[in-house]
Structure formats: structure tokens, C-alpha cells
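Dear support,

I submitted the protein below through the web form. The confirmation email said the job was done, but the results page showed an empty box. After a refresh the structure appeared. I'm attaching both so you can tell me whether what I see now is the final result or a partial one.
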Amino acid sequence: MDRKTLVLVAVTLLLGFALGTKSSQENWKLELPRLTKSAVTPTPPGSGSVVSAAEVLPPSVNLGVKWGDIIVKMVRGGAIDKTKFLALYESRQTDLDQAKKLLESSSDEEIVVTQANSALILNLLWPLGIANKTNVLSQGPMGTQYKDQVGNFASTGGWTLGAKEGGKLFNSQNLISLTPQQEALVTEISQNIYRPCCGNSTYFPDCNHGAAMLGFIELAVASGMSKDEIYKKALVLNSYWFPQTYAEIATYMKSKNNLAWKDVNPQEALGIDYSSGQGAAKVNKELQATGLVPKVQGGGGCGV
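What the results page shows now:
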């Protein structure tokens, strides 16, 4: 985590105290994204999980959406600075090659996410989520309750790979056109998908994971994907981004409810009871008591 992002997170916390945590209209709470890779305590040697990592983290998944010319538009509009972005992947040739291709030309290929490229996909969806004009941004808590501090969140001020500052990019570009009905669907789905780095849903995309998930939801809704399929693919993305957490949720579902991961309702798993910071902590606590916390490597923090 770089110094700038740490400062931004500190400012975000101070804003929470200064402005109060309760909105008069929405009752939204500002919760600070955790900066650690995992908030759990490793299980002592000898303990084991009832679920294999492969069940939660498949080798690859087709997300069923295409970039089209969106990334090229983000480069032209300053949401992505090509030189800065490629510099991040100089030591990772596979990601570098893929990123360079996407930054320079449109892609009609469906996006395939893997454990290896999940961070790259995150960093491409992130600026889409903060820059694209959408009701979630203009009418949600970031565009209303916190509109005067919108550049100070980890998702905006923490985006350092653009030609423009994240706060200036916020809700500023027509990258994906959505009908009123599609806007309503994006809002509905975003309010039902949480992330374990904090207690916020995607409707409050104040960190990179929230912004990236919003970008994915917009792509999926615009493509005509069904709600059930969107939740299914969203669960895959969260699992790649927070592998430890979702291995634990899968273990909990199996040990408590005798549900295999493939049979778990994606919307339920993505909800506040499991995927929020407090929900994931509760699951972890119960697994600690039974010695069933799995060990999974990967994931990352809320910065570039």
C-alpha cells in the first residue's frame, strides 16, 4: 500500500467522524476498507477444511461480457494513463501483453478471468466503475451524502493510474449507455453485493473492489445478462479478489448447511450476512471454533 493511499484512507476515516455516519435520507454508513490481505487468523497446523480451494477458485471463468471499445475510451478520456498503467505490469509479461493490447485496440472477445489475471481485471474495471455516468454514483451516497469529499475515497483518490485525478473522473464519462430500466437494475444488484474489506455494498463503491464490481455490473446489465447470471459471475470475481474469505464461506456452508459450493445461492453468499466485513468475520469466528478455517493464498488490498 503506497503512502498516498494510506493518507486517503485516513482522510476517509476522519470524514466519517466529521460528517457523521448516518445519512438523513439513506441511513448509509461510511466504513473504512481494511488494508490487509486477510482479516482472519490462520488455523494452526493440523486443522483442515471440508472444501477444496479448487471448488471456490476454478482455473478460469468466462464472465460473458466484452470490453468492446470501453478501455480505449478510458485511455482517450484520461481515466487510464497508458504509460502509468503499463509500468505497473513491467515485471509481469503476461499481464503486460494483455494490458497493452486492450489499451490500444477494441476487443470483441469475452473476458475470461483466472487466478493469474484477476488483479489486472480488477484494475481495468476499477476506473470504469468510478468514471462511467450512472445513477449509482450520482444518486448514491458518494454523489449525495459525500459529494463534497468524493475525491478522498480509496476508489477515487486512490486511483493513481489515470491521466486525471479520480475525484475529477467521478461520474464524468459516457462509457456505457444504460436505459432507465437498466439503471434501475444496476442499482438493485449493486445494493445486494457486498465485499469483505468493509461493510459497504457496491452501491457505496468507496474502494477499488466496490468500483470494479460496479463496472462489471454495468457491463453485464448492458449486455442483457440475467440477474441470476450476474450474481453468479459476481461471486466468481469476489472469490478471486478475496480467496481466503470465500474459501471460508464455502467451508461454512458445507459444514453448517451441508451445501456444496456449486449449490450455494450466489446472491445469498454475496449478501451482508456473508460477504460484508462483519459477516465474513462472523463466519471466520465460527470456523475458528471448529478448527475448519482453510488456508488460501492470494487476494490484495484496496489500492493499486
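Response: this is the final, complete result; the empty box was a page-load delay. The longest strand covers residues 60-68.
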